[in-house]
Design a protein that fits this description.
- The structure is a single chain.
- The chain is an alpha/beta fold.
- The protein folds into four domains: about 60 residues; about 180 residues, Alpha Horseshoe (Serine Threonine Protein Phosphatase 5, Tetratricopeptide repeat); about 210 residues, Rossmann fold; about 100 residues, Helicase, Ruva Protein, domain 3, CATH 1.10.8.60.
- The chain is built from 25 helices and eleven strands.
- The strands form three sheets. The protein has a five-stranded parallel β-sheet with strand order 2-3-6-1-7, with helices on both faces.
- The longest helix is centred in the middle third of the chain and has 27 residues.
């Protein structure tokens, strides 16, 4: 019975095999002991035969157990060598075996066992593509592997830190269990199997992936498509290029249809309060660029002018979301107050060779290398050093930029947005004047004869005349104000006409109207109502007069931020104080009321039906 020890060790990965081994060993052992105890004729011969049967049975069970136990190393080695039969066996094992429960390297989603991730981040499909094993790629796709999963291997140093391993061990495993011909120290974050097929120049693997629906326009962490890594010329490159064109044409057609059904103005107005003229100006310029009615040799450049907190940055963000479907890499924001010194040009485009940080590159050049068609926001550009503006001058003029390493980055399809507070006071005062004039015209229209008003409504309803306009009139900045007031201020600050000449559109953001202020207050209160419900189980409601009282705190120099601060000072502070003093508990409801311009609280405690005014001074 001494043979049972190694057998049990062999079966440590299979509970089923252990149970069967123990059952066989028990039966045969009892037979052997019985034969030896009673001294039956031929007992020694029968005992030897029984021991032989035991060994054969346990060996058979060991082979059976091996067939049903997933072995990660054998799985990825099979993908590396193109062993289709072993791949099929391992995928069946990982699907059926209890060890296939999800973990850090468990099957990635609906692909099942074929999408099992290596502990360091890659999949078998990536391994097969990187090693030019087209047959293995075909088989893994047939078994359910998804072609567009992205690599998680971030280089030996970072991968070792994340996995708690030594970098040398990571290097060895990458070379042994992935591909020995690729740089194991480099990062391959975001790569797909098609990226690896392109780098390995494997036309067979690339064809199989593309026929399975792989996206040739998918980008890695550096913003590069598979086509970037293909040899030129090569059949693999031609194959990927042809599929890329098909995908791009389909994407362009889908985007055009979406823009037709959901115009840019409509998207922006969902997130931007007021600023109708600014939204229309930006949308018109972008529409020209998208539809081929603009100069393709130069990028689109905007300068947003107006007071702080009036929607300049938010408009740039929403433009990026609309253009690139919420891709975070497609919006690049640089705070130009960080570039007030001459030497900080290197931080923007990268240090020249021989200087500290040369290998890291610049903040702008790195981001544009990932997405050359991004929306780039230069926030508070008036604070940047003149040498930084010289770099931007080249960027706006030629749509290209040379980084510290001498690499040329083409970005003619990018959209550049600069924001500035220059002439903010003049624009604010001019905007208030336009508001007053618009209100006077609106009051005059109210005094129209009833018959004329009825006639206009009938014409609009019948569709034979103009539709009813928005309640808020779109205000237009006059050419005289632009040329005589704003442009001299800009020229005096920037000191060069060629810089201003590169700007396609100067967009003016005017102060909010009364109706827009009420909308801002309502949005701010709704945001706090959601926080109160989620964090404290408190219901927050308000009467209509509260909106006007809070809107009175608007400061034209601080825009929407002044409304935000007014709500915090006059509403949130009171609620927090009431909660601190025990007058407001979880499950209560708060009603905001307005009396003589003051905002007061009334609280309803369960199970009461009525609100009770709350005097915080007496609590």
């Amino acid at each position: 019975m001494s043979t049972l020890g190694p057998v049990r060790c062999l079966f440590r990965h299979s509970a089923f095999a252990l149970r069967q081994s123990a059952r066989i060993a028990g039966v045969v052992g009892r037979y052997i002991r019985s034969a030896e105890k009673h001294g039956e004729p031929g007992g020694d011969h029968r005992a030897r035969a029984a021991r032989a049967a035991l060994g054969a049975g346990t060996l058979a069970l060991a082979l059976l157990a091996a067939d049903h136990v997933f072995n990660e190393k054998r799985f990825f080695k099979a993908a590396q060598l193109g062993n289709v039969q072993e791949l099929r066996k391992q995928v069946e094992a990982v699907t059926s075996n209890a060890k296939s429960g999800r973990g850090d390297n468990a099957p990635d989603g609906s692909g099942g066992g074929a999408d099992w991730r290596h502990a360091l981040g890659w999949t078998a499909l990536m391994v097969a593509a990187a090693n030019d094993q087209a047959a293995a790629v075909h088989e893994l796709l047939r078994l359910g592997a998804r072609p567009d999963l992205q690599e998680r291997y971030s280089g030996a140093a970072l991968a070792a830190a994340a996995a708690g391993m030594h970098p040398l061990e990571v290097l060895q495993r990458r070379e042994d269990e992935f591909c020995s011909s690729m740089n194991a120290r480099a990062s391959f974050l975001g790569w797909t199997a098609l990226h690896y097929a392109a780098l390995a120049d494997s036309a067979g693997a690339a064809r199989a992936l593309l026929e399975a629906g792989a996206d040739p326009t998918a980008r890695d962490h550096a913003g590069r498509r598979a086509l970037h890594y293909a040899r030129d010329p090569s059949p693999t490159r031609d194959l990927i290029l042809s599929h890329t064109r098909v995908w791009e044409e389909a994407a362009a057609a889908a985007a055009a249809e979406e823009r037709r059904r959901f115009p840019l103005e409509q998207r922006l107005k969902q997130f931007i309060v007021g600023q109708q003229a600014a939204v229309e100006t930006v949308a018109a310029a972008v529409r020209r660029k998208e539809n081929g009615w603009a100069d393709d040799e130069h990028p689109l450049v905007f300068l947003f002018l107006g007071s702080s907190g009036i929607g300049k940055t938010e408009l740039a963000k929403q433009l990026a979301r609309y253009m690139h479907r919420d891709d975070p890499a497609a919006f690049i924001r640089l705070d130009m107050s960080e570039y007030q010194e001459k030497h900080e040009v290197a931080k923007l485009i990268g240090a020249p060779p021989g200087y500290v940080g040369h290998e890291e590159g610049g903040q702008l050049t790195r981001a544009l290398a990932r997405r050359a068609d991004a929306v780039v926001l230069f926030d508070e550009v008036d604070k940047a050093h003149p040498d930084v503006l010289t770099v931007l001058l080249q960027l706006f003029d030629e749509g290209r930029l040379t980084d510290g390493k001498g690499k040329l980055i083409e970005c003619k399809n990018a959209i550049f947005v600069m924001t500035s507070n220059l002439a903010a006071d003049e624009i604010a005062q001019y905007g208030l004047q336009l508001r007053r004039e618009a209100e006077a015209r609106a009051a005059q229209r109210v005094r129209m004869t009833p018959a004329l008003a009825v006639e206009q409504r009938v014409i609009s309803r019948d569709g034979n005349g103009p539709e009813e306009s928005d309640p808020e009139e779109s205000l237009e900045v006059s050419r005289n104000f632009k040329d005589s007031v704003v442009r001299p201020i800009l020229k005096r600050h920037f000191g060069r006409d060629e810089f201003l000449g590169r700007i396609n559109e100067i967009v003016y953001f005017l102060p909010f109207s009364r109706q827009e202020l009420l909308t801002l207050v309502s949005l701010e209160l709704k945001a706090w109502a959601e926080k109160a419900r989620a964090r404290h189980a408190v219901e927050l409601r308000w009467e209509g007069g509260v909106l006007g009282a809070l809107a009175d705190g608007y400061d034209v120099h601080y825009g929407a931020r002044s409304i935000k601060h007014e709500v915090e000072r006059r509403v949130v502070n009171q609620i927090a104080l009431a909660a601190e003093r025990g007058a407001l508990a979880r499950g209560c409801a708060v009603l905001l009321t307005e009396r003589a311009g003051r905002v007061a609280l009334a609280v309803r405690r369960p199970p009461d039906q009525d609100y009770t005014p709350l005097d915080l001074a007496a609590v």
